């Protein structure tokens, strides 16, 4: 592709939405803002020299303006929003004998070094300024609880203060370590204090994550706990707490799914997952503990008893192409599990056991999965009734009435899942089908006891499609029976479908399903036409043949439900690949010469004013169609050297282009909000990370949060926001799982689209990231990632696609693989 074509796409984006940063009356009026220094020399030069603008048209109309009259009013709303996200995102995992909520007058002892060193975000761009973040003691105090001051001081400044969790630097130096306080360090004074503050013990278990480094694990050493298990010191702490206290509540302050079997092993009474907290989210913890807020979140990942059991773990780590001579091109990863990520694996293998297609000796769901995808309890009870599906030309409209039959107000998540048929055609053409896939969801309003709400979820029939790479080379809709069900989580959904198929516990189900909550639709013939065209009118066809390891190794087989044992992944070439000559050639990177000309020698005449259109300014293009021919004329006005610098000097800023009157911009990172961590200068509200946003299952709430980030862009002068992030939770150990939404691409896409819609409403340019197949931090620079076309499209690109199609995302940050 010519360099000029790349530039024109950039300018179309900038020209169409620079309305947040240029002011145009009859001439351009300039308003300077102060910019702090940064570690990037080019960015420093640009930010010190450039000015910031807002756009108004010739009649004085401002395109984007704040809804707030003061920064104080904005900050107040943002602080409330940060807390509200936690209010709705916290997941109640266990609550024996109504241990929670507390009544708000208890005297409690809070255990764990994480209690004074909470996880607010992650390291790198998603970090939070902990100096101003709300501490747990302030949250408990506001909620009316009295916490043990002797124990708190022990962790904060006493002997326990020598123990703190370890996290890598932003560039990946160092590692993750728990470093919980050993029991022998606890003093007699601390132990004596338990008696006075014995109404409940609250144990905080924290795990961090971050940029540039994945979490620690050793698949070979089963005797040593990995980072997502309890450490020896934590286990000792749990034993002591359960011996000393009658009521034990565990708080999981981790964005990555941990192994939580210990909450049953130690007879824990209640357990809350709170993820990471953002700036003010900690206030929600006290509110949920005391019932001021009824938790209504749902898990966005499957919680397995053994996180190493995920098939993707067989190919997750540091693997080398031994004969590669390419700089930053000697690492690889093979996504051998195909589409079977998260619940798509655990639930599908369970169904195959029930159907008799897999041996129960090979797989026992109740031993594998502790909490299914979508799981979340409440302090109240809900009943569902009147399940109905109305078919239209393009949709299935799924409705169900939800009634609060308990004693406390609360919200309920309605999740809709689809099962597609797994046919002989699929087996012959290597198409894989999960037993259930999320295809819709909604959340009720807060329902008072006795109140009801009928929830209607519209499911697009496009959800029936699957990608057929080996047969038709496009999306198809298989012939056969499709099932739609509404459920509280993925496992309940599958049990409902199995019940509709006539299966029961006598067939190996772990619980009876509800057949009345399942709807069957029959597709009479295979359809390879309806979804073979994109909305642009272009034909959808195979694009990723060379990303499939089978392109270089035709004997390779991906995981298939047709033979779980026989196709179970192995670490590809034992982690040391000898690449064929064709792959080595393809790994070579084409570079440009020093003048900026492409290696093909193609150039375009630059710095020339169009005779047809005359001298153009970027503001002339506001609202112009993408295909408007004036874009080419505008591009031609820019001298070649300026074009070169415009791309080369594009990190955390863009330079001004005087030839077309386009100003420079200040850009900032921050998946939790506009951040100063990697740039210095101004920073804004740090919200809970994407994994917590997704756990709210509340699209409207996430869109409002995005709108507030847009407000911050107006107040801070930041034009381009390096966010949101939407890669896949392929395994539990990815360092950046906190800043990605979910293991599920449908949920991630809906949340990404909502956040982008909100932010762009205020004119900020988003850069959805990291495009694409960037699901681990190890070798994220230069790693060659191999996956088949179906999994790339359905698992790894789906969230990006939805965010563009439904959120109209106007920018993308590339990955470095």
Short description:
With 817 residues, this protein is an alpha/beta fold.
Percentage of β-strand residues: 15-25%
Shape type: globular
Give the class from helix and strand content and strand pairing: alpha/beta
Ends distance: 20 Å
Strand order of the largest sheet: 1-6-5-4-2-3
Pick out the low-confidence regions: 1-42, 45-53, 595-601
Please give a structural write-up:
With 817 residues, the protein is α/β, with parallel strands linked by helices. It is built from 21 helices and 27 strands. Helix 4 crosses helix 9 (283-290), helix 10 (343-354) packs parallel to helix 13 (490-500) and helix 18 (699-716) runs parallel beside helix 19 (745-760). It is globular. The model is unreliable at 1-42, 45-53 and 595-601 (pLDDT under 50).
What attributes does this structure have?
817 residues, 27 strands, disordered N terminus, 21 helices, 6-stranded mixed sheet, alpha/beta
Write the layout of secondary structure elements.
Blueprint: H1 3-17, H2 41-49, H3 71-89, E1 91-95, E2 107-111, H4 136-142, E3 146-147, H5 149-156, H6 188-192, E4 200-207, H7 232-244, E5 248-254, H8 262-265, E6 270-273, H9 283-290, E7 303-304, E8 319-321, E9 331-334, H10 343-354, H11 365-368, E10 369-371, E11 382-391, E12 395-404, E13 413-419, H12 424-428, E14 437-443, E15 452-460, E16 466-468, E17 474-476, E18 480-487, H13 490-500, E19 518-523, E20 576-577, H14 581-587, H15 630-636, H16 640-648, E21 653-654, E22 665-669, H17 690-695, H18 699-716, E23 720-722, H19 745-760, E24 765-766, E25 768-771, E26 783-786, H20 789-796, H21 798-805, E27 812-814
Parallel strand pairs: 2-3, 2-4, 4-5, 5-6, 8-20, 9-26, 22-23, 23-24, 25-27
Antiparallel strand pairs: 1-6, 7-10, 8-9, 11-12, 12-15, 13-14, 13-18, 16-17, 18-19, 21-22
Helix pairs in contact: 3-9, 3-18, 4-9, 10-13, 18-19, 19-21
